[in-house]
Design a protein that fits this description.
By secondary structure, the protein is of the alpha/beta class. It has helices at 18-26, 46-51, 68-78, 97-106; strands at residues 5-11, 33-40, 58-63, 83-86. The chain contains four helices and four strands, in the order E-H-E-H-E-H-E-H.
């Protein structure tokens, strides 16, 4: 079943921030998404923290450390969404971010 948005979060040494980042996705007003967490060989507790979230939309993918772009590309390869959204592991989204972006994209067919 196709989801509307694949949210891709590369994870490397963000244990102080990752819970807030993940929660900010789960708290979106727009809920039709999958959340792909890409473990870029993170040596800290970042992924252990991610595993504490029990939401069926979360998928954790593991790779050896290859950097931010490679982690994003791994996410893209596994994405099932109509749209792709990127969130860094040390950042967060306000609750209406996806809702506003989807409305804009759906109402603007000429946007690439």
């Amino acid at each position: 079943q196709m989801v509307t948005v694949s949210v891709i979060v590369p994870v490397y040494k963000v244990e102080k921030y990752i819970a807030t980042a993940v929660q900010s996705v789960l708290s979106q007003t727009y809920q039709d998404f999958e959340l792909l967490i890409i473990d870029d060989g993170s040596p800290d507790k970042s992924i252990d923290i991610c595993k504490h979230f029990s939401d069926s939309r979360i998928k954790i993918l593991h790779q050896e450390n290859r950097g931010l772009a490679a982690a994003r590309n791994t996410g893209i390869r596994h994405a099932k969404g109509k749209y792709i959204a990127f969130l860094d592991g040390d950042d967060l989204w306000l609750p209406q971010k996806l809702e506003k972006h989807i409305a804009h994209l759906d109402n603007s067919p000429t946007v690439g």
